[in-house]
């Protein structure tokens, strides 16, 4: 997978988690066009980056347990300055 596609996946997952709009794992995987196992693998990768992702059985959605989020920033650096 290209880096740009991976970043887009993380950003989409981040958005759905932040809105508490993932639905249960099967629905979340469908929304992301991923297999259930790939969804869980990506969630584990995100958790490995230090993000507290939890699941609510009441809301049937993943959510962030604190204010930490994944922020991906690309900057153009001016050479010679």
Topology overview:
Layout: H1 3-18, H2 25-32, H3 36-48, E1 53-56, E2 61-64
Antiparallel strand pairs: 1-2
Helix pairs in contact: 2-3
**3D shape:** globular
Rounded to the nearest angstrom, the distance between the terminal CA atoms is 34 Å
Q: Strand order across the biggest sheet?
A: 1-2
List the secondary-structure elements in sequence, H or E.
Answer: HHHEE
Give the number of DSSP strands.
2
**Unreliable runs:** none
Known CATH architecture: Orthogonal Bundle
User: Can you tell me the CATH topology?
Assistant: Arc Repressor Mutant, subunit A
Mean pLDDT comes to 93
- Main beta sheet strand tally, sense and closure: 2 strands, antiparallel
Radius of gyration: 14 Å
Strand content: 5-15%
Helix content: 40-55%
Structural domains: how many? 1
> For this structure, what is the CATH class?
Mainly Alpha
| Helical stretch tally | 3
